[in-house]
Design goal:
Strand content: 15-25%
Distance between the termini: 47 Å
Strand order of the largest sheet: 10-9-8-11-13-12
CATH architecture of the largest domain: 3-Layer(aba) Sandwich
Order of helices and strands: EEEEEEEEHEHEEHEEHHH
Number of helices: 6
Helix content: 10-25%
Amino acid sequence: MLGKVKTNFGLETLIQLTNNECFRVRTKKKLDLAVGDHLQVATNNQISKLARVNELKRKTASLRIQIIAVNLTHVGIVVSKFPVTPICFIDQAIVACRYYSLEPIIIVTKLDLLDNEIFLDTIKAKYFNTVSICAPFNINFLPSKFRIALIGVSGSGKSTLVNKIIPNVYQKTGELNRKMFGNHTTSGAMLFDLPGGNEIIDTPGIRNLITAGMSADQIFEYFPGFENLYPIKCRYKNCSHQLEPECSIKENVTNEIYARYLRMCASYNL
């Protein structure tokens, strides 16, 4: 029978079969199961992992590679003014999604809070022509068949969104601390079923989305705001688009976009 990974509990994994039966199983580390993995489950609960369509991964502060979720169609980048979502995080998330051939959607939350309309206008001004923006989030915004993972900094409203979309599901949500930093209220990624065979994955808050193995050329290729700059004709063929004179990038984007690009390269130590 076929199944899928709903979440991981330390050394155990919660698996849901196609008949909706769920069970926990201790799996071998070499299986390297991630939320969203498709499985072949034998009658004795022996598990084999099927090939992944895609992965969303990041490099942690300890240089460990973390798989956030797999077999996705979309990634919802959940942003808010309180706590503020850094623009650099949004850029990192968009670049990572494009690197992994995933469609990013910026989801602006907490529109009822003071000044959040101004924040929404800022997001639209920066990304309107490059990425889909959804505010407020509406499930009908997505195609008829989807699996979307919600990512964002802690406290941005990911779990609250899940609670609104699936009224009877329980997801612990927490108050923001006084420093306006979100408290981690989701301890691990969790996959939830929606009507029509669709799925949504809630994930713990993260502060960056650095992708292992990303080159300077790939950052340039996937960076939001650079979509219409091909073909590039810089003075030097090996131009890094950072310090060289007569760089075509500097001459064809705004100072604000170029500054964000330099900040992105710096986050990758490039």
